Amino acid sequence: MAMAATPFHFTSPITTTKPINKPSPLCFHSIKHPTFLLQTSPLCLKPPPGPTPRSAAAATTAIQLDGPTASNKSSKSLPFRVGHGFDLHRLEPGYPLIIGGIDIPHDRGCEAHSDGDVLLHCVVDAILGALGLPDIGQIFPDSDPKWKGAPSSVFIKEAVRLMHEAGYEIGNLDATLILQRPKLSPLKETIRTNLSKLLGADPSVVNLKAKTHEKVDSLGENRSIAAHTVVLLMQK
Ligand SMILES: [Zn+2]
Question: Which Gene3D superfamilies does the UniProt record give (predicted)?
Fold first, then answer.
């Protein structure tokens, strides 16, 4: 669907008790909150070579998130909110493989603008999705050198901050990693524990699964890694 050429408004389902345009060291667009600039490419993808549809990013579209009002608080506030996140990264030799903030020994890693943490990226997108906010690529655009090589923990912390600001906490989270190699079973518990800490959630509500791609396609040929996350947020 084509983007509107001019800024438009929608009523944010997020209700807050304080202005969301306060300065934040984590969200570089915070000075423009509640406006998020929509970019056409996600944070995790490097710019493709040559002219591509990415150039259409010049035609950024601003979405104005309305500030909190009594009316949207009463009509949009829900006891539960569900979000889904998906992410995929290309695996290339010469890069570290970081999953859930943990360095994973491997012969290759994620070629990405940030640290390429596929799990944290999709968890962030799941939380943002549950909150009805723009995705990770729009809040932390890869066009900003500020995020080059940034640890993805900063994105998680910002998503968690937004979640609390909206009056929600993690109900439970279920994530699935898809990769052919290396075997994650020895490190899965370490990753899950670290993810729980980053989320400030009890480990019992954070679940992590991992599976191969049966040696087919890029995922099954050790050329990419992907992750899915579903999260349930509960009103505090
Ligand atoms: Zn990513």
Answer: 2-C-methyl-D-erythritol 2,4-cyclodiphosphate synthase
User: Pairing relation of β-strands 80-92 and 97-99?
Assistant: unpaired
Q: Dump pLDDT digits (tens) for 191-201.
A: 999 999 999 99
Cα pseudo-dihedral 90, 192, 81, 212, rounded to 10: 40
Q: Distance from the CA of 89 to the center of ligand 1, in angstroms?
A: 6
The residue segments making up the domain with residue 164 are: 8-235
CA of 215 to the centre of ligand 1 (A): 22
Region 13-35 average pLDDT: 38
pLDDT tens track for 67-78: 333 233 433 789
Residue 1 belongs to some domain of the structure: no
This prediction has a pTM of 0.71
**CATH code, domain carrying 110:** 3.30.1330.50
Q: Which residues surround the ion ligand 1 when the cut-off is CB under 5 Å?
A: 44, 87, 121
74 CA from centroid of ligand 1 (Å): 35
Whether 88 maps to a domain, the answer reads: yes
